[in-house]
Amino acid sequence: MLRVLALAGLLFLPAATPCAPARAAEPLVADLSRHLVAITTGFAGTDVLLFGAVDEVEGGDVVVVVRGPNRSEIVRRKARTVGIWMNSGVAEVSNAPSFYRVASTRPLPEVAPSSVLEQHQIGLDSLDFDIHPRDRDANVAEYRQALVRLKQVQGLYGDRVHDIGFLGNRLFRTDVHFPANVPVGTYLVEVYLIAKGEVISAQTTPLVISKIGLGADLYDFAHQQAALYGIIAIILAASAGWAAAVAFRK
Questions:
Q1: Model's pTM, two decimal places?
Q2: Of the candidates 103, 72, 117, which has an alpha carbon nearest to the alpha carbon of residue 172?
Q3: Which residues share a beta bridge with 198?
Q4: Which of 3, 91, 100, 219 is 20 to 30 Å apart from 149, CA to CA?
């Protein structure tokens, strides 16, 4: 009797609904070896590993852009007057990235047309600086070149496009170097998958660079209590000078 009832129940069961299609895999997945760079007193620069994978079906090139927080910069132009170099002009740049690095699997002109690079501000030539000159004989292009050159001398802008290595057909990796003078703040690590000159997938990952320990306390105190910090600095300098004078007198 039990077997008969079980067979009858099976006959009257509704038809099984087809399984929902599996979620399509992302064509691009990337991550960082760490999302926090801690700057201590003895910080001398560091490297952060970026790694990821792409879909073999999609193919294409991978481009990585690392941007520091935007800041206002002052660029001065010097001219020789009566044999002396003097400031002859100044310009303010209101949205300059404090740090900028680019890595790619191939040279950028071979990856995408200039219109796509400019749209996503990929590469130094595609950065959109907001430059406001204050002198009459201003040349915006010269101020732009000067800003990029100064940032490269400081090690904050890359002077070339770094390489991205592939492990097989899917896995990729690249190292991002941050110098000892890297500014603090929240950085954006943008990873693009570009095929046939078009961006088919993109991913943005935040990276925080922050001071910790005694250096962080002094940094916060100097910025939050600037007047008191200046007075203490003057007192310490005067005390050190007086102590040195007494020691040498003896």
A1: 0.74
A2: 103
A3: 195
A4: 219
